[in-house]
Amino acid sequence: MRGLVLLFLCWAVADATLYQDCGSVASDVEFTVEGCEVPPCVLPRGELFVVSFKFTASRDTSTLTIGAWATIGGIQFPWEGIDTDGCHFTTCPITGGSVVDWTMPVEIFTEYPAISVVVTFQLTDDAGDPQTCAMLPVTIV
Q1: Which positions make up the signal peptide (predicted)?
Q2: Does residue 11 belong to any structural domain of this protein?
Q3: Can you list the positions of beta strands (E) in the chain?
Q4: Which CATH number goes with the domain that contains 99?
Q5: Which pLDDT tens digit goes with each residue over 21-32?
Q6: I need a surface site. Which of 14, 23, 72, 98 has the fewest CB within 10 A?
Q7: Number of separate domains in the chain
Q8: Global confidence as pTM
């Protein structure tokens, strides 16, 4: 229940998705899952959805590494098929203090089970710190 309360405290803006920040070092972080403002986000198998981060970078970085995983029963499972080079979805290098718009399509494979999970999306900088980190519950149908 406590985690749910924290989740609802992280509402950023009307168009953004309600999420729980999991250690972002950037400021003004907004996270959006297309078509979902309030979790759990419903993600149909066999379809694409778009995730976006908008943030003010805390430092210079020449790379961003994408981390994406689902947590099931306390075990993290990597999100299959994701290109881990975050610079494919924004312009790098990034200057500290600049506003970054980052958007990536994510496929829900038909092989995924119909399940409710917590997913995490993270963008890690050159120093190994998460510029952004967002967790939210989703239901795969």
Answers
A1: 1-16
A2: no
A3: 20-21, 27-33, 41-43, 48-56, 65-72, 75-78, 99-107, 115-124, 130-140
A4: 2.60.40.770
A5: 999 999 999 999
A6: 14
A7: 1
A8: 0.87
